[in-house]
Each structure stands twice: as structure tokens, then as C-alpha cells.
Amino acid sequence: MARRAEPPDGGWGWMVVLSAFFQSALVFGVLRSFGVFFVELVAAFQEQAARVSWIASIGIAVQQFGSPVGSTLSTKYGPRPVVMAGGVLAASGMLLASFATSLTHLYLSIGLLSGSGWALTFTPTLACLSRYFSRRRSLATGLALTGVGLSSFAFAPLFQWLVSRYAWRGGLLLVSALSLHLVACGALLRPLSLTEDPAVGGPGAQLTSLLRHGPFLRYTLALTLINTGYFIPYVHLMAHLQDLDWEPLSAAFLLSVVAISDLVGRVASGWLGDTVPGPVARLLMLWTTLTGVSLALFPVARTPTALMVLAVAYGFTSGALTPVAFSVLPELVGTGRIYCGLGMVQMVESIGGLLGAPLSGYLRDRTGDYTASFVVAGAFLLVGSGILLTLPHVFCFSASASKPQDSGTEAVHTKVSLTRKGLQED
Amino acid sequence: MMTKYSNLSLETPDISLTASPFTSLPIREEMMTKYSNLSLESHNISLTEHSRVPVEKNITLERPSNIQLTCQFTTHKDVNSVNVTWKKGDELLQNYLLNATGNILYAQYMFTIINSEQMGSYSCLFGEEKEQRGTFHFKVPEIHGKNKPLVTYVRDTTVLICKCQHCSPLNWTWYSSNGSIQVPIDVQMSDKYVIDGTSATETRLKITQLSEGDQGSYWCRAALRLGEREERVELVVLSYLVPLKPFLGIVAEVVILVAIILFYETYTQKKKKHIDDGKEFEQVEQLKSDDSNGVENNAPRHRKNESVSQ
């Protein structure tokens, strides 16, 4: 197959966007709407809520820690077979879960099996998307990630209907069939050969080169800190509102407002990321700082209007930072190393995500309300955005009026000239 | 409570009590001394002569109690001219108390509820032409089953639960119904039905080895001291084929989708290859004619020139 010098920026790339849209819906939308089954399982197995919620936690943990596996396999075999295999695994996990007779059974089937399936799908798909786009990368990523938000709106009532009609066993069986569509999403990921691919070598070589890449390590650290603060409102906003004596219905309405502004933020930021000149890392800094500020202001707002304004601000800015966070990576490490890079980033930043919510809960238990948790979350985001300042090109405003070339191409030139020299010497 | 009605003269038992002809109406004095260990419940209703709709109050009562019902009637007319009656259902009651302060008339009826016969609706009525009515409805506490039908599968085990939040029934019984006939569930007959009665406030009916014939309505009946309550729980039993059909349908759809996507790709690649091959062919031809020095190749060149000249 002919090697391309530049990503196609369109054409089949839009089918990849479609695939990424559906697969982020089928992975994260399902995870977010799992609460419907949670309620049924607590009643069916007569277990404590904490023990049943481990099912989703194990699934998320396996998905995040397994990301490097997915990306390593994609580097070697291309994203298509990996994602299709992941789809089969995810669907099998749900299928086995519908026959569960104990909670352990569910930990293994949904948590471990489906979790591994999800690990093999999310990272390779987003990395593949980054390879297909360069000028419109942020927009493509933003559009693809709207799948998460939109599917939460659709899946929650759908799962509720499934459970009322077929009980949780039949419901899980049909969710398994739904998850099988991940295989179709995988089929859409046509392999793409870019010119820098042979230069960057196999997965082992890529990993070692990444671990020595200063900006990449700083970026990973920044994202980990950002991740620690990012998820806190998702988990604790509802409880914070209840502390302020909000009615459940109004609180749920506020959360919907956050979700909608999150969606708008993703697409707007995606479009903005492509049109604004200069490195995307600057935009990431902007959105991260704004998110941190809005989080820190949450405890100060007491009136409903102030909270509503902050909720819209938080939703918009936190949604805005997601597509640019993914777009920064190819600019740092190049599209050749994107699979491995993304896998590693996902794995490390998940530590932040896992720590964030319990930390916030702990602070709340110690201080009595969520003021400390929100302020700390905002602080994590601000520190993370500070670290982003150290990334190359972020601070110099004069030199780079246009986007920096994917540094991968620079690496190609140096490596190609080296190999040529080597051949000549022979 | 007592301070609120301190201006009421609680008439002492030296009023001659007429023995009521209806055995369901308790004789006040004896009851008051006999059941002084019961709790006292006081309820009141306010009425004016302009009230459009009758005022009603629902009272949930679980155990036998002494009851004190008070109706206050505000009027511009002379309070002494207002006609006051108390009724239980349609029966006239006697031995009620009256007091007037300013233009508010207080009517009070005291009695004791010990069994289900004393439960019901008690009304105070004021006036003759435009009768104003206040009613107290006494009911036993409600029991709760499940609002939505319980969905289960064949050969599964399920538990039907009925709860009473604020009462402890003396007895719980379960019935299954086919249509309108209620059939009590026989626990001794087999292992299929087990009734768990460990908790007083709830009852659990465990049914094992479900079959499609077990589908239908189940009734739990609570026998309380002051009456009976009944609640329905709906059970649906499905076979595994029910969700299996849509499952297989969706799996087939996914397989077809994947096939379409992959075939489309090989088709477009073949087309591309065809075009590429065609281009290569032309390129090879050009190279051949470029490289040619020999005579053999003059012929194609000539042919080419000929075609051009044409």
C-alpha cells in the first residue's frame, strides 16, 4: 500500500470519526448508564451497594490500565483486528454476565472480560483518528467524543426499558448484542500507512523512545494531575447540591445542563483547536485553567443562579479540554508513535482518575462539606495547566505563527538520512 | 393539647347517659375508665359557613385508641341558633360536647376504637339549610407490594415482598388468583412455596422452580387489629427465548454490517488496483518507447505517430 506523507484530513477519515463516535458511545455510554443495572443487581443478589459498584470500578480500571496493551497490539497489527477482537471480548463479557449466579461471576465477566474488551477498543480508535487528521484533528476528536455525552442521554432510558421488559438478565443479554457493534466499528478502521511509520520502529522501540522524551513525560504528568481534579464534580456534584438542600429533581436538571454544555464545549473546542494558529497545547492550558477556576469557585456560589452559571461554565470548559488533550499528543510525539503514546498516557492518567474521587470523599468526611474537595480539585487542574507551560513552543509567541509540523516528520528526516548514510558506508 | 382547649368545659360523667341502641357505638364513661391505658388521639377540623366543599381528614390508625374529635365552626350568626349533629356514616351519634367562644362554635365527640367495628367515617354537621360538613375517615395503615410487575425467567427463584411501614400485622396470608378467584397458597404441599415470617412488618413469599403457569397476580393480606388490608403483586415469567430472539437478530445485523464494510473495502481496492494497473500499463508503454533504440520498436512509434496524425 502506498505510504502517505500527510494524513488524509477527510475522505475515509470521516468514517473513522463515525466509528469513534459509536465506539465511545458503546464503551463510556454503557459504563455511565450502568447505574440502571446496579439498582437491579443490588436487589437481586441482596448485596451492599459498595460491593455491587465494584463491578463498574473493575471494568473502568481494566479498561484504563489495559490501554497500553491495546495500543501495543495496534502498533504491531493495525487497529482493525485489535478493535474487532475487543468488541468480541466486550460482548462476551456481557453475555456471560446475563447468566451470573453470584457477584464474583459479575466481577469476572463484566469487570475483567468486558473491561479488557474496552481496553482494546478505545485507545486504538482515538489514535487511529489522530493519524487520519492533521489540520482538522481537534474538530474530528471533538465530534467523536460527543458520542459519550449523547449516548448517556439515550442509554439510560433504554436500559430502564430493557430492565422493565426483560429483567436484568435479558437486559444484559441485549446490551451484549449492542456491544457487538464495536466489531462493526472496528471494521471501519482502515489501516493507514504514513511515511514515518517504518522509521519509528516496533512497539518496544517506540516505548523506550517515548520514555526518554521529555515533553511527553511532562505532558503525561500534567494530564494525570488534570485527571485527578476532572472527575470530582461528576461524582460529587449531586451530593454537594443535596448538602445545599437542593431538591433531587432540580439537582438532576442541573446535571443535565452540565452535560449539554459539555457536549457544546467539545465540538466548539474541537473547531477552535483547528482554526486558531499556534500549538494546541496553549488552548489546553486555557481550558484547563478556566475549568480549575470554575471548580474552585463552586463552594463560593450559594444562590441557584450562581450555581447554574458555574455549572454551565464547568461543563463547557471541561468538555472543551477533552478533544485538545488528545490533539496535543500527536504534535508532541508524532503520528507514528501515537498508539503507544496514547496507551501510556491513558494508563498513567487513570491513576489520577482513580485517586480523585476517593480523595474528594475523604476531604468531605474530614471537613464536613465539599468546599475543600472542590478547591483541591481546582488546584490540581491549575497545577496541571502550569506544567503544560513547559511544553515546547507554548511560550514563544513570535516564532510559530503556523502549527508546528508533526515532530514525527522531523524524526523521519533525521532517521532516514542516518540510514542512508549507513547504506552508503556499506 | 389540653391548653388549646382549656376554655372548653369538659363535662364530667354526671350527665345521664342514655344507653345507645346501636351496639357499635361505645358507651362513653365505662369505656373511658376501662381503656384509660390506651393512647389519646386528637383531631380537629375548622369550618366556616362559607365553605364550598365538605372538609375531610384521613386518619390512619393501627392500634386501639381513645379518640377526641373536634369541629370548630365560625359564623356571623348567633352561635346558639346553629344546629349541630354528629354522625357515624348515617347513624346519628349522641353524647357530644358543645362550647361557644365569641362567634366560634366548638363541637367535640369522644369515643374509643377497639376493633374494626368502630372504624369508619365520623362527621360533624352544622346548620340546617346550608349544611356544613366535616368528616374524619379512619383507616388501617396501607401495605405496599411492588407497583411494577416482577419479571422473572423459567426455573428461576423469586421472592414476592409485601411491607407495612407503620404497623405490625397479626397475620399475613398469601393468595394466588386466576382471574377473580383467590386461592390461598398452601405452604405445606411442596417445597415450591416458602413464606418467610421472621419480620413482623414484612412478609416474603419465595417461589422456586418457576414455570410459565406461575405467572399472574398474587395477593398478600394483612390482618390488623382494626381491620384488614390487601395488596397485589404481579408476577411475569418469561422463557429464555423471549430475549434470545432480539439478541440473535442484532447479532445477525452486526455480522451483515461487518460483511458489507469489508466487502466494500475489497471492492474499492480492486477498482483502485484496476485503475493503478491501467496507469502502470501506460507507464510501461511510455518507458518502452522512451528507452527504445532498436528497430523493432519503431513500429509502435510509427503506429503512435500515425494515430496522432490522424
Automatic annotation (TrEMBL), chain A:
GO cellular component: Golgi membrane; plasma membrane
A GO molecular-function descriptor: monocarboxylic acid transmembrane transporter activity
Keyword Transmembrane: yes
Membrane topology: Multi-pass membrane protein
PROSITE patterns attached to this UniProt entry: MFS (PS50850)
Subcellular compartments: Cell membrane; Golgi apparatus membrane
Transmembrane segments annotated in the record for this chain: 12-31, 82-100, 106-127, 139-160, 166-189, 216-237, 249-268, 280-300, 306-326, 338-359, 371-395
Keywords associated with the record: Cell membrane, Golgi apparatus, Membrane, Symport, Transmembrane, Transmembrane helix, Transport
Statement: the UniProt record of this protein carries the keyword Nucleus: no
Matching Pfam families: MFS_1 (PF07690)
Domain Major facilitator superfamily (MFS) profile: 13-402
SUPFAM superfamilies attached to this UniProt entry: MFS general substrate transporter (SSF103473)
Primary location: membrane
Gene3D superfamilies: MFS general substrate transporter like domains
CDD domains per record: MFS_MCT11_13
Function: Proton-linked monocarboxylate transporter. May catalyze the transport of monocarboxylates across the plasma membrane.
Family per similarity comment: Belongs to the major facilitator superfamily. Monocarboxylate porter (TC 2.A.1.13) family.
Protein name: Monocarboxylate transporter 13
UniProtKB/TrEMBL annotation, chain B:
The keyword tRNA processing appears for this protein: no
InterPro entries given in the database record: Ig-like_dom, Ig-like_dom_sf, Ig-like_fold, Ig_I-set, Ig_sub
Keywords per UniProt: Cell membrane, Disulfide bond, Glycoprotein, Immunoglobulin domain, Membrane, Phosphoprotein, Repeat, Signal, Synapse, Transmembrane, Transmembrane helix
Compartments reported by the entry: Cell membrane; Synapse
Membrane topology label: Single-pass type I membrane protein
Pfam family, one: I-set
Bilayer-crossing regions: 247-264
Region (Disordered) location: 285-310
One cellular component (GO) term of this entry: synapse
PROSITE patterns: IG_LIKE (PS50835)
Residue ranges of domain Ig-like in the record: 54-124, 141-236
Quaternary structure (record): Interacts with SLC16A1, SLC16A6 and SLC16A7.
Name of protein: Embigin
Provenance organism: Suricata suricatta (Meerkat)
